[in-house]
Amino acid sequence: MPYFDAASSAPLHPVARQALQASLDEGWADPARLYREGRRAALLLDAARETAAEAVGCRLDELVFTSSGTRAVHSGIAGVLSGRRRVGSHLVLSAVEHSSVFHSAAALEAAGGSFTEVPVDRTGAVDPSAYDRALRPDTALACLQSANHEVGTEQPVVETAGICAEAGVPLLVDAAQSLGWGPVPGRWSLLTASAHKWGGPAGVGLLAVRKGVRFAPQGPVDERESGRAAGFENIPAIVAAAASLRAVRAEAEAEAERLRALVNRIRTAVPELVPDVEVVGDPVRRLPHLVTFSCLYVDGETVLHELDRAGFSVSSGSSCTSSTLTPSHVLKAMGVLTEGNIRVSLPARTTEEEVGRFLDVLPGVVAEVRERLGAPAAPAPSAEPRASLVVDALGRRCPIPVIELAKVIGEVPVGGTVTVLSDDEAARLDIPAWCTMREQEYVGEEPADRGSAYVVRRLL
Amino acid sequence: MPYFDAASSAPLHPVARQALQASLDEGWADPARLYREGRRAALLLDAARETAAEAVGCRLDELVFTSSGTRAVHSGIAGVLSGRRRVGSHLVLSAVEHSSVFHSAAALEAAGGSFTEVPVDRTGAVDPSAYDRALRPDTALACLQSANHEVGTEQPVVETAGICAEAGVPLLVDAAQSLGWGPVPGRWSLLTASAHKWGGPAGVGLLAVRKGVRFAPQGPVDERESGRAAGFENIPAIVAAAASLRAVRAEAEAEAERLRALVNRIRTAVPELVPDVEVVGDPVRRLPHLVTFSCLYVDGETVLHELDRAGFSVSSGSSCTSSTLTPSHVLKAMGVLTEGNIRVSLPARTTEEEVGRFLDVLPGVVAEVRERLGAPAAPAPSAEPRASLVVDALGRRCPIPVIELAKVIGEVPVGGTVTVLSDDEAARLDIPAWCTMREQEYVGEEPADRGSAYVVRRLL
C-alpha cells in the first residue's frame, strides 16, 4: 500500500526508531540536573546538537531544538521582529511560503506591522530581484523557503540571501522540505526545519540563528535551549531526529538520483496517460521526490478517495478537499489550475514497481471521476451556434463550473463568448487556467448579482 | 542506583513505552489527511483525547495536547488574559507557583499588566481567603497549583476555585505534580499538566479549558488542536501519555498508600538521624511521594554530589546548586531554611529497601560535608564572653555565613548579640531560619557598607 505523501510526513526512519528506543532509557531525565541520570541526558542532548549543527552547517550555540517546525518558524520570526523592532516592523515573504510563515505574518499585521508578499512565476519560483524591490528601510526580516512544499520548486536562496545580506536584512530560510536532502547554502541568517519531514519523529523542530542576528525571544521564556524554546526538552525524540538526519544525509545523494528518475517518469507519463492534465512546478530546479499535477474536470476529494481505495496515499491542493473551500494559496499564486490537484511525494525506498502501479491505476481513476461528473470528452459541436452563451453555475463547487464551460464552448462559433456565472472561489483560478490549457481566450471577470461572471472567447 | 527525583521527571512507565512503540507504526502520518495512514493517526489521537479527558474530568472538546506542560501553562494564561482583556490585565498567583507561571506573569508585566502574589504559610499553603482579598475588578485570571513541586504541600484548590467562581474570575490549576495521583476536584476553569511527570514521555502537555471561559489563543495559530496548540501533533507521544496516565491512575491508590508510608518513614527518621534538620511542607495535606528537608551548615551542591556518588539522585532548592545564586522562590516564600536543602521524590515502585539505604547513607554524607566546612557540632563556650560580636562573612556563600554565626554564638553571653555581615542572598533567609531552629532571637537586618548586617541575640 504505497504512501506517496512524504512531504506531509515521512514514515519513521529505521535509524530514528532505533535511536528513540535506545534513548528512552537514557534520555528521560532533566538535563539541567547534577545527578547521573541528568548528566546522561545532557550528554545525549549535546551530542544530538552537534550532529544537527553539522548537518545544518552552523555553530553549536546557534542551534536550538523546538517542539515542531511550525514552532521554529513562529519563534524565529517573532524573535527577529522583536530584536529588530527599532528598524521597523515590516516583513517580506514569498507568496508560496508554508502556512506557518503566513500565520506569523498575520500575527504581525494584527499587532500593527505589515508585510509584503513577493509574487512567484508559473513554476512557483521567486525572482531574487523582486526581494530587492520589496525590501524597505523598515524591513526587519525576509523569509524564503528553500523549496516549495506543494510543487517542489527550489527557490533561489543563495541569490536572495546575498541580496538581503547586502541590504542588512536577515533572511529566514524555511528548510522543512529540503534539509534531509542537503544543507542550505548561502548567507542565510536563520534556518528552520522539522524532523518528521526527513523521517525523524514528530515533536522536534530546528531553529538556527546565526551569531550577530539581533534576536529577542518572545513570550514567556525559561532557561532551556538558550532561552529560545521553553519547556522540558524531549531528548529521546531529539536524539532520534539528529541520528536520522545524519542517516538520511548519508544516503541522500543516491536516493535523490533514484527518486528523481521515478519522478521524471511520472512527469512524463501522466500527461501521456491522462488527457487534460497540467504538471506544475519547475521541471529541473526542484526537490527530487515531489511532483504535482492538476486534472481538469475532476474534484480533488473524490480522486483522493479513489486513489486511497486503490491503495495510494497522496494529497491535494484543491479547494474541494479542504474544509475552507479555498484552493491552495501556492497554486493560486502560481496561477495554475487548482482543480483535480494531486501531489505525489515519494518517501525514501519507494520502488519502481510502486510508481508503475500508480501509473497503471491513475488514468482509470481520473476517467471514472470525470464520467461520474459528466465531464465532456471533447466539446460537442452544436447544430445552431449562438454568438454568446451564459452558463449559470451559481452554488456549484469546483470542478463543476469548469465542466459546464467545457460542455458548451462548442456551441458558440469561433470568436463567440461563453460567460460563466459562479460564486466558487476556485473558478477565479481555474477558468483562466482552463483557457490557457485549451488555448481559448480568457476575456476577464465582471461583477454579477451573485458571484462573478467569467467571460471566455472561443479561439478554436 | 535509586532515582529519587520523580517530581522533576519520572522514568518512562512500561505502558508508555509499549504504547509509544506500537504507535510509531500507526501514528506518524498527518491526522488531517484523508488517506488511510491519516485516518489511522486521527483515530489514535481521538482515542488518546478521550482517555486523557476522562482522567482530567473534562469534555473531549475542552482538552488539547500541547508540546509540554510549560507550553500548556504559557498558552493557557496568555489565552485567558487575551480573551478577558476587556475585564482588565491583572493576574493573581500564589508565591509558590512553578516558574512557568512566574514567567507568564513577567511577560504580562512587560506588556503593561500587573500581578499579585498571594503569600503562603510556613508549610507552603495558601489561605483561600487571601485569594479573595487579592481578586480585583480588573483581575482577568487567577492561578493556583494543585500541589507544590518543591515541598509537596497540597493547595486548597476546591475552596479557592469556589471563591474565584463566585467572583467570576477563572482559576487555572497547574496540576503538573498531582494529575497522576487523581483528578483535580472543584470548579476550576483551566487545568494544565505534563506527561513526563507521571511517567509519560517528554513532549506532551495537557491544557483543558472549560466551556464558557473566554479564551483567545495568542501568537500565530493554525488549525490543529482547536487552534490552541500550533504545529504537527506528536501522536505516538500523545498516545503514550494517555495510556500511561490511565495506567498510573489504575495503580494510584495502592501506590500512594505505599509511598506515603515510605515518605513518613523519611520524615520521621531524618530529624532523628541528622542533627539540625528542618523538614518542610505540610505533614498531612501533601503529595504522597515527596518530602523535602533542609540541613544547617551544609551546601546543597556538595551534598547532592556526595549523594550522587553514593547512588542517590535527588534535587535541591538551595542557592548553592543553582547558577543564579538565588535560593528557591518556594522556600523563600515559606520563610524556611534554604541551605542544605534536599528534595526526595519517589517514583512508583520505589522499594522499602532503597529508602532504607538512603537513610543509612544520609547521616554520614551530611556529617562529612559539615566537617569539611568546619561546621560547629555545638557552640563553643568562650572563656571571655564579649557583649557583642561582629562576624565578617562578606564574599562568602551559603552556608558559610550561618556556619560562622553558629561558631561564635557561644562567645557572647545570653542577651548579647552577634552581627553577621553578608552579601549572600541566602543569608537573608537562612539566618532567621537558623534562629527559629536554634531558638535564638533574630533581631533584624540593617544596611551595611557592603551587603547587610544581620543581628542575632543569644537567648540560650
UniProtKB/TrEMBL annotation, chains A, B:
Name the InterPro entries for this protein.
Aminotrans_V_dom, Cysteine_dSase, PyrdxlP-dep_Trfase, PyrdxlP-dep_Trfase_major, PyrdxlP-dep_Trfase_small, TusA-like, TusA-like_sf
- Identify the Pfam families for this entry: Aminotran_5 (PF00266), TusA (PF01206)
What Gene3D superfamilies does the record point to?
Aspartate Aminotransferase, domain 1, TusA-like domain, Type I PLP-dependent aspartate aminotransferase-like (Major domain)
Residues annotated as transmembrane: none
UniProtKB keywords? Aminotransferase, Coiled coil, Iron, Iron-sulfur, Metal-binding, Pyridoxal phosphate, Transferase
Say which domain of life the source belongs to: Bacteria
Catalyzed reaction equations: (sulfur carrier)-H + L-cysteine = (sulfur carrier)-SH + L-alanine
What family is this?
Belongs to the class-V pyridoxal-phosphate-dependent aminotransferase family. NifS/IscS subfamily.
Q: What is this protein called?
A: Aminotransferase class V-fold PLP-dependent enzyme
Q: What is the lineage of its organism?
A: Bacteria, Bacillati, Actinomycetota, Actinomycetes, Kitasatosporales
